[in-house]
Amino acid sequence: MQHYLEFEKELAALEGKATELRSVKSSGDATNNQKEASNLEKKAQKLLKDLYTELTPWHKCQIARHPDRPHSSTYIDRLMSEFIPLSGDRKFADDKAIIGGLARLNDLPLIVIGHEKGDDTKSRLEHNFGMARPEGYRKAVRLMELANRFQLPVITLVDTPGAYPGKGAEERGQAEAIASSIEKCMQIKVPIISVIIGEGGSGGAVALASSNKVIMLEHSIYSVISPEGCASILWKNSDKMREAAEALRLTAQDLSKLGVIDEIITEPIGGAHRNIDQIIPKVGKAIERSLKKYQKQTPKEVLEDRRNKFLSVGQFRL
Predict the structure, then answer these.
(1) Model confidence over 38-71: pLDDT tens digits?
(2) Distance from C-alpha of 206 to C-alpha of 200, rounded to nearest angstrom
(3) What's the first-to-final CA gap in the chain, in angstroms?
(4) Which residues contact 309 (CB under 8 A, 6 or more apart)?
(5) Helix axis angle, 174-185 relative to 134-149, nearest 10°?
(6) What is the pTM of this model?
């Protein structure tokens, strides 16, 4: 079943009517119905293109959160072979909001780590909607240490509203776990490539995206706080989320201009969820292209490249 966003209501009506007409084949007006359906589909395609050429930052937030958008598990299943999941932080528990392990990308061995939101009610609850607890970030640290020990590149797939803010998570050291994950990203001497595939929310995203290269899908978002959270703090009114989305500069296009990210992957018209077969290979090629840059670099050069990247963000010249 196709899920439509708030700004796609007219599109939903057109596509729904076309589908309804296509299903009527036995009546005497079947031929006319098929013609009318074709006309409606053409109108819907034009409307879809028009809608996605005039997107606001708030629209992009909605697209980044679309329930049908491909998640980390989809990219791992479709892009990588011989995936061996590794579980637990060896201290407390296994947090399923972060998945990771050993894998191969076109015969290149690597470590992959990603936020996982889940695809239905049961799996979303199991993965806590992609909001990791401290043990999730400690698992990520363990995997990065493993990658460093065996000189394997690290691929991170970022898709989280933010780290889980619950009492138990805070009691177990949520802030320290995030800080340790960021610190580990800045210490290991193997290349790290991050792809923001949906939401890049707060420190929960930075914990996996402090990398040599940060890539964003065209309609993904990356911000220090959600628009709703920002609006609640600044205006004491979460209904101001549209204004907050504008002010946060959270789109891939804004962040590319600011030098926070390095590359944007264009999505199919209508978003990644409308053509998963098209977006998956694009992401794979972008990762391979990025990794090639570091194949001839020494571990010290890889580390310096990452540090210089973050030191240069926000610099200005008089």
Answers:
(1) 888 888 889 999 999 989 999 999 999 999 999 9
(2) 8
(3) 55
(4) 212, 213, 262
(5) 20
(6) 0.91
Enter the DSSP assignment of 266. P
- Residue length, the chain? 318
Residue keyed to tokens 């995997």: 143
As a whole number of angstroms, the distance between CA 37 and CA 124 comes to 36
Phi–psi pair at 216, nearest 5 degrees: -125, 140
Res 15: pLDDT:
84
CA distances 282 to 71, 86, 128, 275, 278, Å, are 15, 26, 28, 11, 7
- 126-142 pLDDT, tens per residue? 999 999 999 999 999 99
Residue 145, token pair as written in the block: 């240490």
Which residues sit opposite 194 in a β-bridge? Answer: 156, 214
Q: Which amino acid would we find at residue 285?
A: K
Q: What does the alpha-carbon distance between residue 199 and residue 215 come to, in Å, rounded to a whole number?
A: 13
Tokens 């966003």 belong to: 5
Residue showing tokens 């084949």 = 25
What are the structure tokens assigned to 274, written together? 């409308």
Nearest partner of 268 among 70, 16, 17, judged by Cα: 70
